[in-house]
Amino acid sequence: MTQTPGTLVLAGTPIGDVSDAPPRLAEELAGADVVAAEDTRRLRRLTQALGVTPGGRVVSYFEGNESARTPELVEELVGGARVLLVTDAGMPSVSDPGYRLVAAAVEKDIRVTAVPGPSAVLTALALSGLPVDRFCFEGFLPRKAGERLSRLREVAEERRTLVYFEAPHRLDDTLAAMAEAFGGDRRAAVCRELTKTYEEVKRGGLGELAAWAAEGVRGEITVVVEGAPERGPEELDATELVRRVRVREEAGERRKEAIAAVAAEAGLPKRQVFDAVVAAKNAASAAGPS
Fold it and tell me: How far is it, in rounded angstroms, from Cα 246 to Cα 86?
């Protein structure tokens, strides 16, 4: 008889106020065969606050043992178990342990579902006062200064609102690097201790926020940064347009393709670039050989 696979449940946990826990979280904690927790001590405090006792086996599942424990949990799932994955705050696998287990479960055609819960990303985005129609989540930046600045420069022209997580002791350096990469006037919001007693949202330019953070900031941090401003057509004179076309032609592009590419780069009609190229050619012919 073929064993019916179990289900992997990703459960969102409160990011601060325990009363934000969804009702289904208590049900899943009580009913799961296995509860995999990022920190079993924090899980114990959560279950006590919710007045629930895990009905199954509790195991740790954190960055240090994620690779080794994933095959064990997949084996439980293949055997028909209902495995509940919880992290310290927010949704598992979003800058938290969980991605490896989800990928491994999907590969085995095991059902994966979720108990939606509070999200620091969406909460900070909503409170920031910055555009929310389009955004991208960048997670934690590299710790090394050079790598951090390089990563920021990669998205300096990103038009969507950017959301980052950061540790409080690195916040001032990160905001200073953002001011260097994006400009000190770029608007941002530092969201601290969301849903907790000392919740704070500090808004301003990146340069201003970097100076504020230099005095020291505590708590869980989410940084929301305005996207790059929309640029109008690039103001280039005819000589520069012709030079750019010539560079592309020398690289092997046909003139028609080069003109189209330069026009697209500069935000100009192709006819304007074409006319500049023709005028330059006619001027060179009229001048004759030097």
Answer: 58
Contacts 24+ apart (CB under 8 A), 232-235: 232/267, 233/266, 233/267, 233/268, 234/265, 234/266, 234/267, 234/268
Q: How many CB atoms lie within 10 A of CB 276?
A: 23
Distance between first and last Cα of the chain: 91
pLDDT of residue 254: 92
Query: Among all chains, which residue has been given the structure tokens 């601060």?
Result: 16
Residue 178's pLDDT is 97
Identity of residue 57: R
**Six-digit token string for 65:** 């043992």
Of 79, 94, 95, 83, the C-alpha closest to 31 is 83
Give the mean pLDDT of 108-127: 95
- DSSP character string of 170-233: GHHHHHHHHHHHH-TTSEEEEEESTTSTT-EEEEEEHHHHHHHHTT---S-EEEEEPPPPPP--
Model confidence at 233: pLDDT above 70 = no
Question: Which residues have C-beta within 8 Å of that of residue 252, sequence separation ≥ 6?
Answer: none
Task: Give the per-residue pLDDT at 133.
Answer: 94
How deeply is 32 buried, as exposed, middle or buried, from its count of CB atoms within 10 A (0-12, 13-18, 19+)? Answer: buried
Judge whether residue 137 has pLDDT over 70.
yes
Q: Facing residues of 36 across strands?
A: 59, 85
Mean pLDDT, residues 285-289 taken together = 70
Residue 2 has a pLDDT of: 62
* pLDDT value for 140: 95
Q: Which amino acid is at 103?
A: A
Amino acid (one-letter) located at 54 = P
